[in-house]
Write a structure and sequence with these properties.
heterodimer; A: 494 residues; mainly alpha; two-stranded antiparallel ribbon; 71% helix; B: 160 residues
């Protein structure tokens, strides 16, 4: 412990060097901006900065990427809260609560909560990385596709907490989303599924088109055609975010649970921030004494999902630094940066490159602290857009959706899909079909399929493998409880 | 009625998965397994919904419809969005976006011609500069005369 503290202190001193600090700040700015723009994901932005690191040393390179990583996972929540446009799939649960809070006139509070819970989650995960990385990596390495499948099923099961009126409506939406996720070329056999001869469908339906269309375009249409607003939209007198340090104390439960889930799921190689945000949101609703308030702009839901998203960053880094195995797409790019500089991450990294490793970990701690200030400034800039009259704002949201969808593959087909999902989102809202389960289905469905089929291949099609492995059995039992419990309590109609 | 349509659609798609498993290796699940599982789930959920509505003896209430909508404006809004995507490859992003912003803002309730014109022109210029010059996004330039016009705009903006 003392040795770790000494290394961490030395790492902190190194990370505070002007060049290193500058890289963290630059990375955070790039990450927050990229995360906030739909269509430009956090992973894309890390890939984009990779070429700029060729001429740098390993530490500034990694600190730049760490900054982009930490800023990128948070950035998408700003536009989600303000405009109902989550920048990344991982920001979807934050959007469900944050946008409702914003509509109620609590924009400043929602933004402040998002900034603070992201910072706390990220900070806790960086400290966990510093002190517990090697033993946790050994434990997590024992997990296989069977456990991953169980975790994803748990995320899907949380759909039972998403449909606010009818369980069957939520299930229809979820299965429709999972079906959309099966469109395209199947990865194991290379067979085309449901492409109907349309060339651009061969690569599947990109979930970003679904995300942008359902949330942003659907919302614009809804606002534009309502003869009178569904609920009064209260604009705050000032859009300056409030940093609710004291207000976080009553929310310490969701904050701690979200952070813990983020670290745990982030630490499972391949699971990542998106799964952790859905799982923590679902669990939080189960823990809540007022589950009926979720989806109406309830702070605990926002805090839990935001803390888990940033909490997953440290978890994902554990695999990279201790085993040389990237725990997420973002850390896979970082592995590339290590290799470019001739360093092989793995068990010997903590012994041979102690100073570099602890500088990177200290950089993560600094990045999460600096994110409070930079997130505040970014939120302030975006929040001023709230003062723009609705006709102008809605028009530019449509244009940004066009650009975001086109940027995915430089293909107008993605724009068509986005607009199509926009109309679908509007229709779903009008007919009482909840939109969030469909989004979950598109994102988590393909993951569930991949893990399930891998488990089947490795176990010789033995379905009992999901029940004979203890972690999988417990998580699957919890998934069943998640669905059955609300029904038994009689809160929900079938 | 709508849940039954969903059920029918799931059934049709389920039939469509029949040929998918032809490539599957002996003793392994084929590429049709997962979609079949999903479509069965979708069909059952639709059926449950239909039965629930039938038992309740009423049509599905538009519970999520929070207020009356302006159908004409909705139709025009969707038509404008469709036209925007349809015309862009032919007229180019620059020209189409200026026209779209002006038309959509008017439809959304903007009345000041100065505001509409300024937003349409300046907004497009800023977007072109940011996305073509800075991000290198190859936005459609259009065909024929429109391509020439787009290139003229790019040169004026020093994008090229």
């Amino acid at each position: 412990m003392t040795e770790t503290l000494v290394h961490l202190a030395a790492g902190l001193v190194a990370a505070l060097q002007p060049l290193n600090l500058g890289m963290i700040v630059l990375g955070l700015v790039i990450g927050i901006l990229a995360g906030a723009l739909p269509g430009i994901t956090m992973v894309n932005s890390i890939v984009l900065v990779l070429p700029f690191t060729y001429l740098m040393g390993i530490v500034p390179s990694l600190l730049l990427m760490v900054g982009v990583y930490c800023g990128g996972v948070f950035g998408g929540s700003i536009t989600g809260i303000l405009f109902n446009i989550p920048g990344d799939p991982m920001n979807v649960p934050t959007t469900w609560e944050g946008y409702r809070m914003s509509r109620r006139g609590e924009t400043r509070y929602a933004l402040g909560l998002a900034i603070m819970s992201s910072a706390v989650g990220g900070l806790a995960s960086a400290l966990f990385l510093a002190f517990f990385a090697p033993p946790f990596a050994k434990f997590a390495l024992g997990f296989s596709s069977v456990e991953f499948f169980a975790v994803v099923v748990f995320g899907l099961a949380s759909v039972s907490v998403l449909g606010h009126s009818s369980m069957t409506a939520a299930l229809i939406s979820l299965f429709a989303g999972m079906f959309l996720g099966t469109i395209g070329t199947e990865t194991q056999y290379g067979v085309e599924r449901f492409t109907f001869g349309v060339p651009f469908l061969r690569t599947g339906v990109d979930f970003v088109t679904v995300l942008i269309g359902l949330f942003a375009i659907g919302e614009v249409l809804e606002q534009m055609v309502l003869r009178r607003p569904a609920e009064p939209v209260e604009r705050p007198a000032t859009a300056v975010p409030r940093l609710p340090l004291l207000a976080l104390w009553p929310l310490r439960g969701p904050l701690a649970r979200g952070t813990a889930i983020g670290i745990a799921i982030g630490g499972l190689a391949g699971a990542g921030a998106t799964v952790s945000s859905f799982v923590s949101y679902g669990l939080e609703k189960q823990f809540s004494r007022r589950p009926d308030l979720f989806g109406t702009g309830h702070a605990p839901g926002l805090v839990a999902s935001e803390a888990s998203v940033n909490g997953s960053t440290g978890g994902a880094m554990i695999h990279l630094l201790t085993l040389g195995i990237p725990g997420s797409a973002a850390t896979a790019v970082m592995l590339g940066a290590f290799l470019i500089h001739g360093i092989q991450p793995g068990p010997l990294l903590f012994t041979n490159q102690t100073r570099e490793v602890y500088t990177i970990i200290a950089g993560m701690i600094l990045a999460n602290v600096l994110m409070i200030a930079l997130g505040f400034i970014a939120a302030l800039c975006f929040a001023t857009l709230m003062k723009v009259p609705a006709p102008i704002l809605n028009t530019f949201i449509v244009v940004f959706c066009f650009l975001g969808a086109f940027a995915l593959r430089n293909d107008l087909a993605d724009v068509w899909l986005t607009m199509l999902f926009g109309v679908l989102g509007f229709v779903m809202r009008r007919y009482g079909l909840p939109v969030p389960p469909l989004v979950m289905g598109v994102i988590l469905g393909p993951m569930a399929e991949a893990y399930f089929l891998t488990s089947m291949v490795s176990s010789g099609n033995d379905l009992t493998v999901f029940l004979t492995r203890p972690v999988s059995a417990v998580v699957l039992a919890a998934s069943v409880a998640l669905v059955v419990w609300p029904l038994l309590r009689g809160r929900r109609s079938v | 009625m709508a849940p039954l349509v969903g059920f029918g659609l799931a059934l049709v798609l389920l039939v469509g998965t029949r040929g998918l498993d032809a490539v599957a290796r002996e003793g392994q699940l084929g590429p049709g397994f997962w979609p079949r599982l999903v479509l069965v789930g979708l069909g059952v959920a639709c059926l449950l919904k239909a039965v629930g509505e039938w038992r309740a003896g009423r049509a599905p209430e538009p519970a999520a419809a929070p207020g009356a909508i302006d159908r004409a404006r909705l139709a025009m809004g969707i038509a404008l969005i469709v036209l925007y995507v349809l015309v862009t490859p032919w007229a180019g992003f620059a020209v189409t976006t200026v026209a779209f912003i002006a038309a959509f803002m008017t439809l959304a309730g903007a009345r000041s011609p100065v505001s509409i014109g300024a937003n349409a022109v300046l907004g497009t210029v800023v977007l072109l500069y940011a996305f073509v010059k800075v991000v290198y996004l190859p936005l459609p330039k259009g065909e024929g005369g429109f391509e020439a016009l787009t290139l003229l705009v790019y040169r004026a903006l020093r994008i090229f």
